[in-house]
Amino acid sequence: MITGYAKHGDLVNARALFDAMIERDAVCWNVMIGWYAKYGKPTDALTLFRKMMRVKMNPDEVTLVAVLSACGRLGALESGRWIHSYMQNNGIHMNVHLGTALIDMYSKCGHQKDTQLIFNKL
């Protein structure tokens, strides 16, 4: 249901349904964070990601790609760097999807050196 609402751009009802859920798995979090990032609400995506971390739900690759996209849209370099550090500290392998998201984020934040470093690692 959340995905259905979100696919039609109805993030208000998607969020209401999300908030009404007693238990949420990573997929539910990913849907909301991802659609916020996609529909131009990067601040909401980051806010929800922080809430996800507070409730001790571990992000996966899908979560991190969406949040890095939100960071890039906002120019939120410090948040993006925190996520990059989180990946390194938690053994999250940088695959093509995460590497591309990091490149995009660093590039949009104006950090060409970091962009090049990630590109070279891929």
Helical content (DSSP H or I, runs of 4+): over 70%
Low-confidence stretches: none
Number of domains: 1
Helices and strands, in order, run as HHHHHHHH
Largest sheet: none
Instruction: Count the beta strands.
Output: 0
Q: Which class do the helix and strand fractions yield?
A: mainly alpha
Q: Any idea what the shape is?
A: globular
Q: What share of residues are in beta strands?
A: under 5%
Radius of gyration: 14 Å
If helices are DSSP runs of H or I spanning 4 or more residues, what is the number of helices? 8
Average pLDDT confidence is 94
Gap between N and C termini: 37 Å
What's the topology here?
Layout: H1 2-7, H2 11-20, H3 26-38, H4 42-54, H5 61-74, H6 77-89, H7 96-108, H8 112-121
Helix pairs in contact: 2-3, 3-4, 3-5, 4-5, 5-6, 5-7, 7-8
Walk me through the structure.
The protein is mainly α. It has one domain. It contains eight helices and no strands. The chain is globular, with a radius of gyration of 14 Å. The model has no long low-confidence stretch (mean pLDDT 94).
